């Protein structure tokens, strides 16, 4: 299927990351795409970077916005492609052939296509591949999501469903995916590709925002899936570190024997009832 893709990059005060992202996008072997850059009125040299690459952009603006999702919505509103993909400042396509390889997989019925993502933190030298499942069960979204940078989304879905929730700071893309997949019943497809290198040093990768993310997910479940809220809380409890340790003990013959011996020793010192 021949289709036009809109690549959208949002940026705020990340000039070095922005330049890396732009280079990653404009060096793609696939050429049937438009490139949109939305800057939040940066004061760190990002505007100069944008000016240096201006000829590569279909649309760009640098002005104050109301947060990440407001900037993303600006990009969506001006996008003319059949599909959109977000590659925000600091994020990279996995290699120069990614858009070409994705385009080859697109069929007329596809609405969300997703692959895998390489998570990278250059400050801590962390790097690992996050593999998304072939089947996106509802329970998967209780603690996880599909990385936005690894997804290509049909542009018309944002008209048919909604734009990103600008009241959220972290979880608006999570809200969009869970609503689109389980209420709107969109056509989804997994592809066997690492699509992007995601810079975990961004806002959503910060540990300071975990509680915000949890709260926004709970708000989404209460709004659209109220009958699943208790299941969500129970699953979080079962997936705590202590619960995971107990599950590991249960799976290990050796540690089950160790725990059994410890309990027997403890029972020796517990007075028996008459």
Overview of this structure, please?
With 274 residues, the chain is of the alpha/beta class. The protein folds into two domains: 5-233, Alpha-Beta Complex (Spore Coat Polysaccharide Biosynthesis Protein SpsA, Chain A); 240-268. It has eleven helices and nine strands. Helix 2 (46-52) links the parallel strand 2 (33-39) and strand 3. It is elongated. It starts with a strand and ends in a 6-residue tail after the last helix. This is Glycosyltransferase involved in cell wall biosynthesis. InterPro entries: Glyco_trans_2-like, Nucleotide-diphossugar_trans. Keywords: Transferase. One of its GO terms (molecular function) is hexosyltransferase activity.
Summarize the structure in short.
The chain is α/β, with parallel strands linked by helices and 274 residues long. 40% of the residues lie in helices and 20% in strands.
Radius of gyration: 22 Å
Share of β-strand residues? 15-25%
Under CATH at level 1, the class of the largest domain stands as Alpha Beta
Q: What profile does the largest beta sheet have?
A: 9 strands, mixed
Count of distinct strands: 9
The CATH superfamily name of the largest domain is: Spore Coat Polysaccharide Biosynthesis Protein SpsA, Chain A
Shape: elongated
**Assembly form of the protein:** single chain
Derived from helix and strand composition plus strand pairing, the structural class reads: alpha/beta
As residue ranges, the low-confidence spans are none
Would you give the CATH topology of the largest domain? Spore Coat Polysaccharide Biosynthesis Protein SpsA, Chain A
Topology pattern, helix = H, strand = E: EHEHEHEEHEEHEHHEHHHH
Please identify, by name, the CATH architecture of the largest domain.
Alpha-Beta Complex
Number of helices: 11
Task: Return the domain count.
Answer: 2
Percent helix among the residues? 25-40%
Average of pLDDT: 88
The separation of the N and C termini measures 80 Å
Keywords: Transferase
Protein name: Glycosyltransferase involved in cell wall biosynthesis
Domain Glycosyltransferase 2-like: 6-148
Organism: Flavobacterium nitrogenifigens
